[in-house]
Amino acid sequence: MSLPAALATAPTADPVKVAGFPPAVEGTITIAGCFGAFLRRLVPMPAAYGEARAAGTEVAAALRAELYPRTQIDVSGVDHLIAGSVGKRTAIAPIQSVDLLYVLPPRLAAPRAADAVKIIAAVLQDRFTVADADGTGAAVRREDMTVKVWPARQQDGAFLMPSPATLDRASGWSITNPIAEAATLRLSDSLYGGRPRLLLAALKAWRLHGDVPIEPFALELLVLEFYGTAPRAFAIDKALPEFWGWLRSRAGTGVRPPGGRSMVDVGDRWQAKAKGAYWRATLAEHHIKERRLVDAAVEWRQALGPAFPVPGETPLKKLPLFKGVQR
To answer: Is 14 exposed, middle or buried (0-12, 13-18, 19+ CB in 10 A)?
Structure first.
């Protein structure tokens, strides 16, 4: 999917350097440089976000043509919202999915969320090939990206979107406010020099690498709470173990999204993974004090995944602190 020429040719800022990390040309001669290289591999460039938004906009246009065929006003700016990690710019590369909230016209405002999902799925099936559909929305493939469409209804400046039905929400609708979520994240970023968003990127890499049983949205909300409740370390290699240690106090609890009413369950099945990552970070800090940068980087790679660079990138056969353990 092609981008507008102005966006495709415009120079882009380095979001990692802007947040205070060494420039890319300095390489991995320090642990800060290693984290800088790691985050540059994780954080999508503006062009990637542009392509993802273009995929969502294309699907929204198809829905608009079918659901608003005779409208007398242009609803292209108010009938949909790119939400989720693309809308809030919290995705990690490569971007593989886009969340699209699509507001149904009043004549099709279904009382039950399940009926609204059926309407959306039927329209998408007629225009595209529906890759998947569940109780919350329908997904279509656009080139190398999946666009998931969540039917929505406007509600007091926020949106109603499908969620699992409960005794309190028998209709299956729940309130979400992606705009408030994005504004809260931007505020936290402005106070901490862009570090909350980068910490979230590192935690998403940890989640994927370690198959950690916690939802990305829960991680996002926990990062906001982490930075919002007390002064935190600025350096990412200090903030990560601090977060993993703090996370234990939130096991089995819930967190309320900005502008939302329902609590998001944090769960507790991730505790062993968080404890393991914490101790790897502690070992890495010990190696740094002993001026063993390579050993420290290997520990961070074991915690965060293969995207974390090891100076020299020499293939390792053994872990530095566990001489009898093979990789």
So the answer is: middle
Pick from 26-30, 32-36, 145-149, 209-213: least confident: 26-30
Residue-wise pLDDT tens digits, 278-324 = 999 999 999 999 999 999 999 999 999 999 999 987 544 554 444 44
Domain edge (last residue) among 161, 176, 191? 176
Enter the DSSP assignment of 22. Answer: P
Q: What is the pLDDT of residues 206-226, one digit of tens each?
A: 999 999 999 999 999 999 999
* Among the listed residues 234, 264, 237, 269, the one whose alpha carbon sits nearest the alpha carbon of residue 251: 269
> Is residue 311 domain-resident?
no
Helices (H), the chain: 5-9, 15-18, 31-42, 46-67, 84-87, 113-127, 178-191, 195-210, 216-229, 236-247, 271-289, 293-304
Tokens of 68: 């608003």
What CA–CA distances, in Å, run from 54 to 6, 11, 57, 81, 90? 14, 19, 5, 12, 17
DSSP string, 136-180: S-EEEEETTEEEEEEEEEEETTEEEEE----SS-TT-EEEE-HHH
Amino acid code (one letter) for 296: A
Are residues 199 and 115 part of one domain? no
Sequence-ordered list of residues with C-beta below 8 angstroms from that of 195, at least 6 positions apart, any chain = 19, 20, 189, 227, 234, 236, 239
Q: State how far Cα 243 lies from the chain centre.
A: 17
Q: Are residues 159 and 189 in the same domain?
A: no
Backbone angles phi, psi at 236, to 5 degrees: -65, -35
Which helix (H) or strand (E) segment holds residue 83: the answer is strand 80-83
